[in-house]
Amino acid sequence: MRFFTFLVLAIFVVSCAPIRVHYDFDKGTNFSTYKTYNYYSDMETGLSELDTKRLLEALDANMTAKGFNLSDTPDFFVDIKSSDYQEAQRNTVGVGLGGSGRNMGGGISIGLPLGQANLNRQITIDFVDENKKQLFWQAVSESSFSPNANPEKREQLFNSILEKVLTEYPPKK
Question: Which domains, from first to last, does the chain contain?
Answer without folding.
Answer: 19-87+118-173 (3.30.160.670)
